[in-house]
Please model this.
Amino acid sequence: MQIVTIKPRKEIKISVEAENISPDKFGGKTEKDIQSLVAWMGNQKTTIGELFSIKVEGSGPAVDTKIVLEGDFSRVKRIGEGMTTGLIIINGNADMHLGAKMSGGKISVKGNVDSWAGREMKGGELIVEGNAAYYLGAGYRGESCGMRGGKITVMGNALDFVGEHMCGGEIIVNGNTGILPGLSNNGGKIVIGGNTSRPGSEMSKGTIIVNGKVNEMMPVFKLEGDEAVDGVTYKKYTGDIIGNGKGLLYVK
Amino acid sequence: MELLIKNAAVFDPVNGINGDKTDISIKDAKIVSKVSSKATVIDAGGKLVMAGGVDAHSHIAGAKVNVGRMMRPEDSRSGISPRTKITRPCTGYTVPNVYAMGYRYAQMGYTTVFEAAQAIMKARHTHEELEEIPIIDKGALTLFGSNWPTMDFVREKNMDKLAAYVAWGLLASRGFGVKCVNPGGGEMWGFGKNVTGIDDVVPGFDVTPKEIIVSLMKVNEMLCLPHSVHLHCNNLGNPGNYKTTLASMELANQVKASKDRQVMHVTHLLFNSWGGTNWGDFESKADVIANCLNNSDNITGDMGQMIFGSATTMTADGPKQYANAKLLHAKWSNGDVELEDASGVVPIYYVKQISVHAIMWAIGLELALLTKDPYKMLLTTDHPNGGPFVNYSEVIALLMSNKKRQEEIKTVHEAVHAKTKLPGLDRELDFNEIAIMTRAGTARVLGLLDTKGHLGVGADADISIYDIKPDQIDPSIEHAKIKSAFSSAAYTIKGGNIVVKEGQVTATPLGRTYWVDAKVPRQNHDEMMKDIVRKFKNYYSIQLANYMVQDEYVSHPQVIKAGAIPVEVN
Model:
């Protein structure tokens, strides 16, 4: 087991891109190796070691690597991007694109995450104990597929466009979400514990379950009657009927 | 500046040089017979040397290319390369940024490229982009097939006025030739309809696509334009459309050429050689189309080869693009250019295991292999409709190696066996034939053979050197080497400047923009302008005075003079 503890050396005011903070990149590496990995601060190329203090305990491959982020990472983007294995624990907030394109392993965040968390995720697990911002588990600009697999759990709330262009996997938001969760969905499952508005527009496949209130319903869904899911009775809708969609929307 | 290329294994079909070891002398952007001893020497070391590549049909600039960029931000995530001391940053694969167009063509050894369609009203945008495309010489074909004045003059059977309109339209757009896309269909799309064949009547104008095609061919020859009519047939992209294509090609017999070239160039034939009645019984009719080409001496075509993977379809064929977007559930952009045609952009992903795509892939290759004379079938991918132009090397390797084709056939949908003749074709093109399809033939079809597409004295000093020794390679077996060599030139020389070395851009001189200044009798012009003035007053959203592309937009012009002569019409 290799445990890497990483802490900002000082307050980060200009945003940092640090896709190298990942078990795949840290696994089996010494402190010095890790310090020399590239990071960008604004338009300046720098290293992980310049920006963060690194402590490595034990040694092991990526699969046995645990990265612990202490302090404020709310201006550090792309943490865990493309990771395939291992564990990242963030004891605070994280900036945009956390766990983007990850295909395995686990990221656990004690605080909040900014937009695009789990963007185009393929597998693995992302747990956020606080809130998530926009485009949670979404596709990037212009892409036809966002999240394809894996699981995202947000204990708090999320903002607009949760799981936009989702093609697979599962997103659970215990609190409320902003408008248009599951926009243009083509697969996968979104479960919303609280309230939302206008879910599932342009949906062609996939499932959305809303346990709270739907403040505004899109007129493009067709009511199919009541149906029980896991012992709870919901109103079942299908749509988006304009695009002959086969999406399922369950509203309590 | 003088340059001497020594020990070149030259393939120059125009001058009958077939791999002979020759020296090439260059002085002041032209090929000359001799240079002084002060000339810079490049030792080609027996490597393959051809004239700079010429592309007669590619969508590299203008309104719809830019719409493609805007609606496909995801495309810009690929092909990223940062700026260097010489080059600007590049992005994109199917719709690259403006600078990448020039660099990537030059890196393949291409030095002249023609944008395949611009509406007159949008021509200023086309030229703004052409001005910024580095290195290559370029030009743009102007759309006339669904323009209101065209259809009015065709109905009136007034060829003098139509010729005057075409001449004025080329001037207004600083255009190079007459493009005709789904004639009549672009207009009908304004009312949510399309034409289904060349004999449908376009409502409101009372003309048929057949009359439009024939009339445009007649005036093209009256004006002695360097290029012939460049036709995108009606019914493109519909199963069974080969009949429409054949009927359109037959029309070429009605007109005599004013120059030593074809009277009709039928473009991206891959999309027009389709049999069957629906997607279920879809099949190749490439053999029928190739046979028609083999038996006629005044028609040429180009492949429009399809490349598996991402592509962005863009065309003035508005109704086709609506159908595509519905079929594919894809993003769709629609355009209407007032009195001048329509347009549409739809991204597509060609998949090896989809039967229709596999058959389409085979059709392009069949066309090239079944057309006996390579001067009649140019190599294109209809960039980016069939696929991005950076894949020309893949197409060349496929045409030169039956082994490669058989390997590929094993990986695509089995429908290619039953629905196409490709698996049984063992023809392998040689370097000479490739030089024709990519250089001599394209230059001839465009009417630029005096300065482009060959290496004779007086030609432009546009030369590509590829890292293969033709006498030491068997393209049939070593197809991977062929592909790699043609994708990245050892040297590209443009106008006497070394612009690419070992696949890297070394200089970015600005190329020229070709356009055609065709003269017609004053009184025909004046008569025609009366109609145009009325149309601007009644219908156009802009003023006539703001319509013409000014000279400021074409800072490196290469003007070709043409003009009206009486022409014999059967």
In short: The longest strand of chain B covers residues 2-12. The mean pLDDT of chain B is 95. The CA atoms of residues 516 and 560 of chain B lie 5 Å apart. Chain B touches chain A at residues 71-75, 77, 329, 331 (CB under 8 Å).
